[in-house]
Amino acid sequence: MVIIKPKISTYISLGLILIVLLGGLILLLRDFAYKGSFGLWFYLVSCSLITLVILMLLVKMMAGWRFITAGKDQIIVKLPLKGMTKSYPVNEIMLWEEEIILANKKEFKQVTIAFTDKNSISVSNHEHESYTDLVNYLKKKAAKQMIKSKKA
Fold first, then answer.
1. Is residue 45 a contact partner of residue 34, using CB atoms and an 8 Å limit?
2. What pLDDT score was predicted for residue 103?
């Protein structure tokens, strides 16, 4: 039984970035309210940009918070924020592929699994624990559905 869950260290890092961005937004709005050190256009552009980055980061964190269990010839996907649990037998895997990207002398890996009900999940080695165990499970149980890996 393989349990794939988000890495806590990744969420701590993203949370710290989120706190810094919120602090910067609060300081900008406070400066606008009390001093007005810059022109109005600066506050409009910078606050809009920071808010957009904060929202994108929150969506990324919330969308990535899922738990995947692979074993006993099935894959169970749990999305706690949606309150959804979906179980897929291995024979419902339409195809899966592992993508390997080399950047800054580091290897980033991501596996994408597509199911027959047109849902798909992606798991990466930097954001999830037990990544290699999942890939080995898929190679063992669903080798025929594998698409040859890409290197970018």
1. no
2. 84
